[in-house]
Amino acid sequence: MSEALTFIREFLKKPTQIGAIYPSSEELAREIVKQSGAAQAGVIVEFGAGTGVFTREILKRKPKDSAFFSIEQNPNLVEILKKELPEADICCESAANLAQLLKERNLDHVDAIISGLPWAAFDDSLQDALLNPAIESLSPGGRFVTFAYLQGLLLTAGKKFAAKIRSRFASVEKSRIIWKNLPPAFVYVCTK
Fold it and tell me: What's this model's pTM, rounded to 2 decimal places?
C-alpha cells in the first residue's frame, strides 16, 4: 500500500510526468516484460521506473549476464528505488538522453526497451524526443514495449500515439487485455 501512496503523491505533484493515478499491476508487469523478450536480451533499458513494479519483474527475468539499467526522471522515486533495489542501476535522467547513458556504460545498442511512460499525456515534440533515441538505439529486431489503457483506444491522444508507433516500427502488435490493472491495459509490442 505504501507503493500506491507514494505513486499517488507523486502523481499529484506532477500529473503530466507520472500520467496515472495508480501504479501498474504485477500482472501488467509480467505481461510487458514477457512481451519485451527480456529473458533472452543482452541489453535491456527501462523508461520510467516509477515505483519499480516493472523493474522488479525485469530483474527476475533477465539473463544474469545481460546489461540492464532503468531511467526515471523523478528524483524522489529514484531515491526510493535505489534503497529498495540496490542491485539495479537506476539513473535520474530523461530517456531522451539514452545514447549518452548507453555510451557511459560502454554499450552501443539495446535489445529491449520496456517503457512505463505516459505517452498519451505527452505532446508530439516530447514523444519524438523520447522515441527517436529509442528507435536509433534498438538493434535490428529489437523490441520497444509500452502499455496503454484500454479507454485510450477511443481518445484522440491514444489514437495519435498508436499511429505514430505504427509509422516508425516494422511491426506493432497488441497483447491480450490485462483486466487486473487499474484501469485495464494492454501492451504495444513494437519491433524494429
Answer: 0.89
